[in-house]
Amino acid sequence: MLWACLHFPALALNLVEQGAAAPAPRVVEVSHRQRRLVLHANAAAREQGVVPGMTIPTAQGLVRDLQCRLYDPAAEQQALTELGHWAYEFTPHIRCHGQHSLLLEVGRSLKLFGGARPLARRLQQQLPAGFEPYGLTFAPTDMAALLLARAHAETHAGQALFFSLQSLPACSVQWLEVEDSQKDLLCSMGLHTLEPLLALPRGALARRLGQGFCDYLAQLNGECEPPLPQWTLPPYFQAELDFVQELDNRQSLLFPMRHLLSRLEHYLRARQVAVPALEFSLWLRDRQRQQWPLMLSTPLYRVADILPLVQLHLEQWSLPAPVLTLQLSARRFLPLSAGQQDLFQPHPGDDISRYQLVDRLKARLGGQQVHSLGMVADHRPEYGWCSATPGAGQALQHPSEQRPFWLLRQPRKLRASKGLPVYGAPLQLLKGPERIETGWWDQQPVNRDYYIARRDNGQHLWVYRDRPSQDWFLHGLFAR
Amino acid sequence: MSAAKPQLTQILQHPAIWRAADAVRGRQVAQQTRAVVATGFQTLDQALPGGGLPEAGLTELLCPHWGCGETELIASALASLSRQSRWLVWVNPPWLPYAPALQQQGIALPNTLVVHTRSDRDTLWAMEQCLKSGACSLVQGWPGKPLPHQIRRLHGAARQGRSLGLLMRPQSHLQQPSPAPLRLELGPLQEAIQVRVVKCPGHWGSPWLRLPRASLNPVPASQPPATPAAETRPRLLPTPVPHFQWHPPAPAGG
Questions:
Q1: For testing contact with chain A, the best of B107, B113, B232 (most A CBs within 10 A)
Q2: pTM (two decimals)
Q3: Among the partner residues A342, A361, A407, nearest to B126 by beta-carbon distance
C-alpha cells in the first residue's frame, strides 16, 4: 500500500482568498477565551508584521485596511470534501482526516499513472489553483504519510516527498495525532522523538497512555492496517463561493463563475457524465435569491465550451442588487457519448460545435428565435409544420400534392375579379382545386379550395378560396 | 533563367492569380482545387468558375424582388448540402420555409435551422457566427444594407467555416461595390429564370442567361383549363441550353 497525504495548513485562508478579486492584506480570525485572535494571515498581511496568534486589534494597528474574516469550520470541511471529489480522479480510496488533510491510497493507481513520481506530478499539476501552501507526502501507511506531511508542511511546501517507514523514528513527537496532554506526558517522560517511543513495550505504553494510543502507533508503524476507505461522489453537483466584498458588476462575476465551472468540470470528468442544464444561484444583499438557469442544447462537460455561453448570457441577465454568494448547481446528468464520424462525409459534423452554435445564437437572440423545421401530421397547411428543437425536426410522409417552398405566416387576402384572384394582375389557375377542410377537434376549422396559380411573370403561387366567404387568399410561393 | 521558369508556372497556378488572356481565349481557368456545389442548371454551372457555387465563400444574389427564381436557383444545392450533417440556415427569411415542401425536395429537415432576428445588426452577427462556426453547410441571409467591410467579414467567416454563404440583396444594390467574390444578378421572372454573373473570380462575368424552369407536376386542372407550361420535363432537371443567349435585362422592379 502507498498512501499519499495532501495537507492544507491554511485552508480557511485559501477559501477567503478565492472569493476575493484584488490582493489585499487579509486575516482569518478566531475567538479564543473572548479574545479575537489571528488564525491565518495572508502574505500581504505577514509582510506588514501580522503573525498568527496576534490579537485582532494589534493586527489592525499594524495594517490599516485589514480585512478580517471569521473562521468557518463548516466551510473548511466542505472545501476539504470537494478536494476529495477532485482527488477521485486518481483513486477511489480517499479519506478526509481532520480539517486539513486528505489521505489517498494510491498503491492501486500506480500502474495507470506510470509510477509514484508521475502520479505525484499529475497531482501537483491538476490541484485546483488557490490551495497553496500545501504539503504532499507519500508513505507506506496513512498515519505515517499524515505525520510526515505535517512535519514537513512548512519547510517543503508544494513539493512531493517520498518516505519509507525508516524515516519515522527521527520525527518529533509534536506531530503525533494525539491529544496535547499526551504529548506533554511524552515530553515529561523524556521522549522527544519517535525512536525511543517506538522501542518501548506496547503493554506498558497502553497502561499509561491508553489502548487508543497504542492502536494509533500500530497503525503508524504499519503493524495493523485500517480498512480501506471508499469515497462516493454526491449524486448531484453543488458548489458555492462567498465574496469578501460584494460584487455589483455582472462582468466581475465571470471570474468566480469560471472557478465554479472548473470545479464542475472535475466532477463531471470523475463521473464520466455531461450536463444538459445548470443553474447559477445568487444571494443578493437584500437576502433575495436570484436564479439564472442555463439550458444547453447538447450535454457539455468542458469549461471551455460552457464559458462562452455563460459570457453571452451574462449580458442578458439582470442583477438587481450586489451579490454576496454565488452558487452553481447541476442535478441532471447524461452519460458521455463518444462521437461517431462518417467515413464518407467530407465534413464530419462535430455535434458539439453544431449545438454550441445553436446555444450561442439562442443566448443572444432569444430561445424562440432559433428553431428547426419539422412536420406535424395535420392536413391543414398552417398546422402541418412546427418549429422544432434544433436537430429534432421530424419528417413525416409528405402530402402527395405539391406544397410551396415558402409559406406566408398569415394568409394574405387577395382581390377578386370575375371569379379569379388578382395579385398585381388576374392570376391564372393552373391546378386544383385541392379541398382541405375541417378541424372540428380544436375549434380551428378550415374549409378551403387550394389552387396553384400562375402570375403573368411565371411565378407560381399557392392560393385558396375560403368556401364560406368565397374570398381569395395567397398562402404560399412556389420555388419552381 | 531556366531556374526561374518553373517558378513562374508555379506562381501562375495560384488560385488568386487571374490572367485576362485566359478569359479572352475562352479557356476555362485551370480547375482549381476548390469545392463547388452544382446548381443543377447546366448553363449557369458552365458560366460559374469551377462549375458551381463555391462551397466555402460568400455569394451575392441580387434580386429585383424576392421570389424571382432565386430559390429555384439554389434548390438543388440545398438538397445536396442538406445531406451533410451540418446546418442549413436561413437568417431572417422574408417568408417561412415550409417543412412539407422541403421534405418533398429532398432536404433533410433535422438539419434545417431558421433564425429570426430583430435588427440588421443581429442578422449580420448571426450570419457571421453561423458561417464561422464550421457547423453550417449553407447560410442564406437577408440583411438590410450590408456595408462593404461587413460583407468582407462575412466572406472571411465563410472561408474559415467552409460554408456557402448566400447574401440576398435587392437589385438596387448592384452599383454598390461589394467584396463578395461571386455576384449573381437575377432579372424579373419570365418563362425562364434570368440570371447573369456580374463578377466571379478568374473570369469575366457572363451575359444574361435564361434558365428553363422546372414545371409543376403536369396534372390537368379541373377548373378553369390550364395552359400547359412551356416545357414538359422531369422536375428539377433543366434541359441544357446549347449556347448562351443574349437577352436585354428587363427593367427592374417587375
A1: B113
A2: 0.66
A3: A361
